[in-house]
Task: structure prediction
Amino acid sequence: MIERISNPSHTKAIVEKYQFAFQKRLGQNFLIDQHVLEKIISGSEVSKEDIVIEIGPGIGSLTQYLCEAAGKVIAIEIDKQLIPILEDTLSSYDNLELINADILAVDLHEIVKPYAGKSIKVIANLPYYITTPIIMHIFEKNVPIDSITIMIQKEVADRIKSPPNSKIYGALSLAVQFHADTHLVTNVPPTCFMPRPKVGSSVIRLTKYKIPPVNVVDSIKMFKIIRASFNQRRKTLVNTMHHQLGMNKEVVAQSLESINIMPTIRGEALSLEQFAMLTNVLVDRGLI
Ligand code: SAM
Result:
């Protein structure tokens, strides 16, 4: 039987062998629970047809499962002390390419270019501080991938799925809802990691829409309005559009009324569809 890197005693042995010093600032909490790893593999729907981009392989706990399930794995790790460890722990897999780089600094378009037309999946267990920038980068820069399966703080997963009017509804919820269908793969308690993080996590799969779920003439302009609305979420939309985007209050009020939305509404009460409708009216009137 293949020895699992994620087996707690094996993880410990690797850490000791290389005298690996965990770096908290890089969010180095390694998965040591086989059930969670199996759920990530089945939840990500990865197959031998797929090219997988793994962000943050660590010592290879998840990478090992990915190499067995995918056609090819490209693993991008920022910490150079982990590269010789990965070359050792994953030496028996010939479908792995390791890149020592900061994911926020690499050109993902370049990395995926040789695989045009193939199914590309991003899978990551990352430090929480970069999960939102990564998700937004992939969607906004239109990196041609099929899905992102990612471990995130449970609270962020709740925020992504949140409906209008809730306290946690925001620009992130709307951005993800615009670009992808969200599926909760599993919740992961701190005991599944070494060392243990302070908060609970969730794995979610974001499957990119081929056709956006709403009709909007200019999504960049729509997100400009969305960001402005949530910068001052306690103000009415008419006021935020005036203060943040320099628009005439009367004109914004009329535009809202024309799509049957009360002019006293706050931005946090608008659904994605209503933001799209408002954008279309404002663009049509040449106001944005
Ligand atoms: N995938 C492994 C696992 O599940 O056990 C390790 C996960 S650990 C939570 C996060 C990993 O991401 C660490 O190996 C860390 O060094 C790496 N990392 C942190 N910031 C990164 C960045 N900007 N680019 C690439 N890798 C990064």
The CA atoms of residues 228 and 244 lie 6 Å apart. The chain is about 40% helix and 20% strand.
